[in-house]
Design goal:
Blueprint (H helix, E strand, L loop, with lengths): L14 H12 L3 E6 L5 E6 L8
Antiparallel strand pairs: 1-2
Length: 54
């Protein structure tokens, strides 16, 4: 997977993806974009588990 908005702020495309990326970064997580096994796009937002101190 790759970050299609790496190093940019609200370029072209969907601003919601850049907003999700910024939110993930602020909370120590990641936002990735890849291909779904069934076709199309797969968007994943991963955040640390705050209850585990991570």
């Amino acid at each position: 997977m790759r970050d299609v908005y790496a190093g940019s702020r609200y370029t072209t495309g969907t601003p919601a993806l850049a907003i999700a990326r910024d939110a993930a970064r602020r909370h120590g997580g990641t936002r990735t974009v890849g291909r779904s096994a069934s076709g199309g796009a797969l968007f994943e937002l991963t955040l640390p588990d705050a209850t585990r101190g991570g």
